[in-house]
Design brief:
Elements lengths: L3 H8 L12 H9 L10 E5 L4 H14 L4 E4 L11 E3 L6 E2 L2 H15 L6 H15 L4 E5 L17 E4 L7 H4 L3 H8 L9 E3 L5 H14 L4 E3 L4 E6 L2 E6 L2 E5 L8 H15 L7 H10 L7 E2 L14 E5 L4 H17 L4 E5 L7 H5 L6 E6 L11 H10 L4 E3 L3 H7 L10 E5 L2 H11 L5
Parallel strand pairs: 1-5, 1-6, 2-5, 6-7, 7-8, 13-17, 14-15, 14-17, 15-16
Antiparallel strand pairs: 2-3, 3-4, 9-10, 10-11, 12-13
Helix pairs in contact: 1-4, 2-5, 3-9, 3-10, 4-5, 7-8
């Protein structure tokens, strides 16, 4: 039998475009597979620009702490495709085993019969087949891109739709205004199914999401800051809705934005019918949630061993202006508690607005080391990225690799060990976790 890597390589060749938003092709394949999307456990469907994965991580941790079996579908993966599919089980789920993944992909490939279909569509169909064949209490389902025409949007009646904070990204597919983006994201809202709208950073996004959800008709709408509230009080997470107040410890995941993501997760679970989770399970989930590659501290590993003695090494896959904003805010919070010179080791794709991303670190970062991405032909040239950083006041230089860039920091004279943030791309985050020997598990 072919291994999953071989089937994945063949699936990548079934459509000339990696992204071609449409539902017709996956609906055709799912019909041949006897409609697994109609045989899923209750689905919580999550769209948005930022915070989708973290919100799902909080929901999974809370539900598992409550003793439930939780299927999870996320994208993209960082190191191995298997990260996208987590099969629920009592006591905690596991990433899909190789044998089961290969078999599901082979079945989807055979039933597709060589017809045009995008990689995300055929792999999503295979994932639905796996989820339908394995008992679970809930499926946490992340949109791949957009919402309205995303391959995941074939689920007929989710238990809840969730829309996390919106920002500007993928303009070539979703539009250049927050109103247009909101219309695409709100496409996951189904008549009669509750929708939870996370607190938004932009008034235009908040207004457009409410209006788009209302146009879908007949769906209960819960809006952050209106129907539920979440904030930090003396370092603790305080969540409140019509059912009362929860006083919780701060999230394990770093950054003030994770308070919003955790609160959105709690609101979504309640809206989806999982509101009877004990406060102890909610607290345990908030304290145990993990989401690799997002403000992740690399305390061990091959690359972690190369940094100057006493230095901190952080990794973040954010790649748009809002991703840069929350990463910079988290680094600033750390600096307030424990001052240290901040160094960025960065690479970005050429189609990302590097200036908008890096501008968040102006006046905060002491230096930037621009590096290449081995896995991406469309990566911005390191010299180009260094020039952009220098243009906004961040002294910059180029290194031939992440490892070389980290080692070079040992030749600098620091008044105290630096805080190093590897950042700018999820693809870079994946390369780093692989090189460091700490892939997601």
């Amino acid at each position: 039998m072919s291994g999953s890597a071989e089937v994945i390589a063949r699936c990548l060749a079934l459509h000339p475009k990696l992204i071609d938003l449409s539902l017709g092709r996956i609906e055709r394949l799912l019909a041949r597979m006897h409609e697994p999307q109609r045989r899923l456990p209750p689905v919580i469907h999550v769209a948005g620009t930022n915070g989708k994965g973290s919100t799902i991580a909080f929901m999974r941790a809370i539900l598992e702490a409550a003793g439930l079996r939780v299927h999870v579908y996320t994208s993209p993966h960082l190191v191995r495709f298997h990260e996208r599919i987590r099969l629920g089980a009592l006591g905690g789920g596991q990433l899909v085993p190789e044998e089961r993944l290969a078999a599901a992909l082979l079945r989807a490939e055979a039933l597709n019969g060589g017809e045009p279909i995008t990689f995300f569509e055929i792999t999503t169909a295979a994932a639905f087949d796996l989820f339908a064949s394995e008992p679970a209490d809930v499926l946490l389902l992340e949109v791949g891109l957009g919402g309205r025409c995303d391959a995941t949007n074939v689920v007929p009646a989710p238990a809840c739709a969730v829309i996390t904070p919106l920002g500007h990204d993928h303009a070539e597919h979703l539009g250049t205004t927050l109103t247009a983006i909101a219309g695409e994201k709100a496409g996951i809202v189904k008549r009669g199914c509750p929708v939870v709208i996370a607190p938004q950073a932009y008034e235009e996004a908040d207004r457009a999401l409410r209006e788009a959800a209302e146009r879908r008709g007949g769906s209960p709408i819960l809006v952050g800051t209106q129907d539920f509230a979440v904030h930090s009080e003396r370092g603790r997470l305080v969540f409140q809705d019509e059912d009362g107040l929860l006083d919780l410890p701060p999230p394990r995941l770093l950054g003030q934005h994770q308070f919003v993501n955790a609160g959105t997760a709690i609101a979504a679970l309640r809206a989806a019918g999982f509101g009877d989770a004990e406060p102890a399970a909610i607290e345990a989930g908030i304290l145990s949630a993990e989401w690799p590659g997002r403000l992740q501290l690399l305390a061990r590993g091959t690359l972690a061993a190369t940094v100057p003695e006493g230095a901190e090494l952080w990794l973040d896959g954010g790649h748009n202006a809002d991703g840069g904003r929350v990463a910079a805010a988290a680094m600033a919070d750390l600096a307030d508690r424990s001052p240290a010179p901040l160094v960025l080791v960065s690479a970005m794709l050429a189609n990302k607005e590097a200036g908008d991303y890096l501008g968040n670190f102006a006046g905060l970062a002491r230096m930037l080391v621009a590096v290449p991405m081995r896995s991406q032909e469309t990566a911005r040239a390191p010299a180009d990225l260094a020039g952009i950083a220098s243009g906004i006041g961040i002294p910059s230089r180029v290194a031939a690799s992440v490892e070389e860039g980290l080692r070079s920091l040992g030749t600098e004279r620091w008044e105290q060990p630096p805080r190093i943030l590897i950042c700018g791309s999820l693809y870079l985050a994946g390369e780093v976790l692989a090189s460091n020997g700490t892939p997601p598990g």
